[in-house]
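Narrative summary of target 7.
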Amino acid sequence: MIVDVVQNHITISKHKIESRHIGQLLFWKFEEDDKSNFIFSGSESDVIVLFQKLINFFNKEGLKYQLTESANKRYVDLQNKNIDFSERKEILKKFKHGEFDKNAYKSFNSFLTSSITRPLKDHQKKAAFHLYMAKNGANFSVPGSGKTSVVLSVYEKLRTEGLVDTLFVVGPPASFGPWKHEFEVTLGRIPKYQILAGGDRNIRKLEYYPDGDSKSELYLSTFQTVLKDQEEIINLFKSVHIKPFLVIDEAHYIKQLDGNWAKAILSISKDCIARCVLTGTPIPKSYSDIFNLFDFLWPNNKPIDTTSKHQILQAEKEKQNEEAKLILDDKIGPLFYRVRKSDLNLSVPVFHKPVILEMNKYEKIVYNAIENKIRENTIQDEYNDIELVIKLRRGRLIRLRQAVSYTGLLKSAIEDYNELLYDKKSDIAKYIKQYDEYELPAKIEYIIKVLEEFKLKKEKVLIWSNFVGTLELLSKILKSRGFNNKLIYGKTPIQQTTVSEEEDREKIRNEFVDPNSGLDILIANPAACAESISLHTTCHNAIYYDLSYNCAQYLQSLDRIHRVGGSERILAHYHFLQYANTFENDIKTSLENKAQKMYHLIDQDYTIYNLDMFEDDENNAYERLFKPKN
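Modeled conformation, tokenized:
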């Protein structure tokens, strides 16, 4: 038989293939034409992977075949690339075990010293050398370890060698500001950059066709935009004016195997000179979460082949995690670098004991009434179906959290929850509706006193709250008392915010971290500000006005003021406010317990851990708080 490979097609002609072999071809999605030829059509990477499988299959079955000139050239190229990949993988494996070319490492460090403006820490130098040797590498280091500086340093090294000249970053809008800032600080020059996200799509598309003078050195795009503009991005990467280094920041967002974002990212990866993925949570829920990352990095080699993927998933299904880890370590262990929290040598942060406050008169009356009504309603839950009970419990906990944050929040509706917890004609309803006329929350009164102390010490303060209404009230009251402050709030950045909104946030962030700006108080909610924003250079105090059971956002919020580049010598201080005789202590205790488990798991390379892996905890919390006593 004759095997031909031309562009994105594999053709098998003049064959005498048995039915059992035909079954395999049909399984691989070959189609038979009217001349009895078997033809496969697909993307370039699909053709390369299948071509290698086909040859291995023919050799294993002892089938005689002849390659056309085109197919033979493709086969030789493929063999050379496989040798290169295998050799590179072996070099990276030895490096992670401490065996490497000391002279090469010394030379690399000399480059960092002479050409990189920001001095890298030891753990960053090792991560950078690993990525430099890999060319296509993953950095799974913990948040706050300086992954951006590592990538920029390697980009600069490859640029001076003439291998790349353009950095194309895909990530959430919140990452754009940090990339621009880190580029300037790390490399000592302001990049010509282009944001390829938002705005008029037709105008945006013009930016994908630059000439040598009009191209940018730094391109910033979102997952949503790549999905819309993947054809234009592919054309950009094929341009003779571009030698792209493609970086996927917060890469856990492309974990879904058949997800549209993942497919789009995989489609643009083939024409890049170098590739990198960055995430501190590579395996959020399943071992399959990591498959896309390495398919992206090595589209022509597929480090985790189809057979291994099936073996890993089967082992996970049968809870044979050690077997799954062994397969993963063999396939991808050398291809990623990971810095753990313990490697950062940061100062130990100070977690101050919660300040326990008595509620003011009316907020206490309302809280007690709401809590008692919830206890009454809980008794009736046994007569409702389980789905309704879960919705009710979720809504009730939100109401309780609102009650300990700001009583006025209880006026607002909660999506998918309409249970009335007070009589609309009662005094409780009046206290809620007219709360601002009665008093200030005791927490705000306390914060005003504390801020006076920080003002005397000339220290900046970050205040966290989970409710927009509370944030706005805090800002309004503090401004009326002479405290200059600004707000950063909203929904989850990756899904909800626009580029212009993120630019506004970045302006506020830059003003806040400027030691001479006069803006010393930043008020934020973790959902919008817990990821991709660094405040640690000038702010070392965080006040948690209220908390939620969301461990992901809590841990990420802690890292905003405790990071590489300042926290090695300056202590981060965390302050917590709680109301006496409420359920707030349960939230704090729950977060502490989950955080301890998380930090233990994060230190392991192949442990499945989701920053919200304890997602049933709200239901458990409800059981702890309201389960009727026998």
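Confidence is low (pLDDT under 50) at residues 491-496, 611-616.
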